[in-house]
Write a structure and sequence with these properties.
OB fold (Dihydrolipoamide Acetyltransferase, E2P); BirA Bifunctional Protein, domain 2; binds adenosine-5'-triphosphate; binds manganese (II) ion
Length: 428
Amino acid sequence: MEWLQVRDVLAGDGAGEKACIRGWIHRKRQSKKIAFLVVRDGTDVIQTTVRAGTEPFPEAEKVTIESSVEVEGTVHADARAPGGKELRVEKLRIIGLSDTFPITRDQSTELLMDLRHLWVRSVPMNRVMRLRAAVFQASREYFDTMGFVEVHPPMFITAACEGGSTLFKVPYFGKKAYLTQSSQFYLEALITGLERVYCVAPSFRAEKSRTTRHLTEFWHIEAEEAFCGLEGTMRTQEDLVAHICQTIATRFPEELQAMGRDPEVIAGVKAPFERISYDKSIDILQGRGVDIPWGADLGTKEERELTMEFEQPFFVYHYPAEAKAFYHRLDPEDSSKVLCADMLAPEGHGEIVGGGERTWTIEEIMSRINEEELDTTDYEWYLDLRRYGGVPHAGFGLGAARLIKWICGMEHIRDALPFPRTMNRIYP
Ligand code: ATP
Ligand code: MN
């Protein structure tokens, strides 16, 4: 007999046809006359019923929540059952009898984090994982259609991209090495052969801040384009994010609703996104009573306040040079600013993408390095990219979990991935 998946059983006629499924006992309710076993597999849940006096009844009495089982029976339409079908059980085999499952209703967040390896099988977590997979799929779809080549940069590196304070050091055969904070520098090397590249890879940052949007390990969707400037990369970013939103709104309307998110809001995300200058954002913030001096980067608190005014993602561009890393290109018309932009998600979520034009001549980058008094010994190779046929180029990094947090309207970034890593969480 062929195994069916629950989704296919639910899609059937429910006119008494035979079905064999396997999965886990999701819920169990029992009286003297009948046992209701809700079985979950990788596609959905279905109610199964076992009548007293039938051969499988003793097994049904014995089976515990989260036991793995094989079930054979006939499918009948039943309006009272979730999904409108029930499976009347003729054979029930327990594959793995579960110990008393430690997760019941209304558990604390802390306990669910300690038991994350068990919690990831829950319906809400499965929902997030499926949606998350679609975010990555839609990203690749967009990049592939636009002629970007997917590349695979290293995770062990020797040079900081985003400043030394959040670098994770790793022992490396007696040499010093770090886990990468971003793949940007390697993408910059790869555009010389491929022009447009992207990667989907983890980035690591020793974030000591306990915010609702910082992980120590996050999946980073990064892209780099040769012969491209700030406006060009902003277009790529907004088209990418709009494509992801359209995909999610089309494929996951019920899931979004179940998370308390109106799918129409996500369906409404269309390019172009509004662009506001850093200067204007400071005016807005000061107008809302936030005490921020010109020149400071926007932090979690400022971004929360600023994004309250918006319903769609938008860009803040032309940040002060002092607020951003050395590789950003100075605005030739105003050298106090850099040609960069962050994409901010509305409703308090804040930055989801950071990017812009890169400094690409050797003279420009050396003067930025000298200004910032950086030691170049560990990334002389990065300067070579300017010495051997440098071209104007631009790119960005999108934090997948940040994007998902906003799309799903989550309060905390840890809900956007199965095993979040933060300062005080590395187990399980
Ligand atoms: P923030 O100011 O919010 O810390 P950042 O300026 O450090 O962000 P970038 O260095 O520009 O961020 O990184 C590019 C993108 O990577 C960010 O827009 C964000 O989506 C994501 N990102 C950065 N740090 C983290 C983190 N600790 N956890 C999750 N995602 C992150
Ligand atoms: Mn940061």
